[in-house]
Amino acid sequence: MAPHHQRVPLLFPLVFLLLLLAPPRADAWGKEGHIMVCKIAEKYLSEKAAAAVQALLPESAGGELSTMCPWADTVRWHYHWASPLHYVNTPQVCNFKYSRDCHNSRGQEGMCVVGAINNYTDQLYSYGQKTSYNLTESLMFLAHFVGDVHQPLHVGFEDDEGGNTITVHWYRRKANLHHVWDVSIIDTAIKDFYNKSMDTMVETLKTNLTGGWSDDITHWENCENKHATCANDYAIESIHYSCNYAYKDVEQGITLGGRCYTYWCLNIWLV
């Protein structure tokens, strides 16, 4: 099993993007995965960022960002234009290039998960100023898409739609490879390692952030320009892990899951 520090875990990068929600210096899976991202993020928000989040959350959130992190999936069929913003497709070349890959089926540039993160981050920089943007939706989209870009198969191959057309069996249940990474690995980990408790898993990951992974935090949040470069870096990282882990040795109809020397235990560290 590869060491954790080689991978920016899927559950953590939102922590750093949400720090952008403080006023300007003038002075983002399945449902469970997205909820976990935001439960962890809320703990690490600065005082100003936490206040901004509270001000932007709808009343239905009950004051908790995590309740709204799956929101972008729930409106996907109502906001048809946003469907391409959950992912980015690449050729089978195991790299990501914004100019080549970040577009929708009509060729509109920026219509991918990387472009969406850049766009909603830019919008949230206007917090505290007069703006025409719906910053509540900007927050909920950003929280969701930062989770999406760190699921490796949300930066997957165009030919198989990020693993959606690769049929597999997770233990005895028929699924597609994308669903395994969106849902099955996390669900199995919660059941097998955390006594069926998502909260227990979240608390364990929080402990890891202040313990074994604490030395990596500065590296995870470091990029030249948080408006753009971080999102590009996240996509570059995810396609690398798609090629080297998610797609590795997978064929149509293969059975995944099982004892801990098999596919899922070799890849749980990525989640």
UniProtKB/TrEMBL annotation:
<dbReference type="InterPro" id="IPR003154">
    <property type="entry name" value="S1/P1nuclease"/>
</dbReference>
<dbReference type="InterPro" id="IPR008947">
    <property type="entry name" value="PLipase_C/P1_nuclease_dom_sf"/>
</dbReference>
<keyword id="KW-0732">Signal</keyword>
<comment type="similarity">
    <text>Belongs to the nuclease type I family.</text>
</comment>
<keyword id="KW-0325">Glycoprotein</keyword>
<keyword id="KW-0255">Endonuclease</keyword>
<protein>
    <recommendedName>
        <fullName>Aspergillus nuclease S1</fullName>
        <ecNumber>3.1.30.1</ecNumber>
    </recommendedName>
</protein>
<dbReference type="GO" id="GO:0003676">
    <property type="term" value="F:nucleic acid binding"/>
</dbReference>
<keyword id="KW-0479">Metal-binding</keyword>
<dbReference type="GO" id="GO:0006308">
    <property type="term" value="P:DNA catabolic process"/>
</dbReference>
<feature type="signal peptide">
    <location>
        <begin position="1"/>
        <end position="28"/>
    </location>
</feature>
<dbReference type="GO" id="GO:0004521">
    <property type="term" value="F:RNA endonuclease activity"/>
</dbReference>
<dbReference type="GO" id="GO:0000014">
    <property type="term" value="F:single-stranded DNA endodeoxyribonuclease activity"/>
</dbReference>
<dbReference type="GO" id="GO:0046872">
    <property type="term" value="F:metal ion binding"/>
</dbReference>
<keyword id="KW-1015">Disulfide bond</keyword>
<keyword id="KW-0378">Hydrolase</keyword>
<keyword id="KW-0540">Nuclease</keyword>
<dbReference type="Pfam" id="PF02265">
    <property type="entry name" value="S1-P1_nuclease"/>
</dbReference>
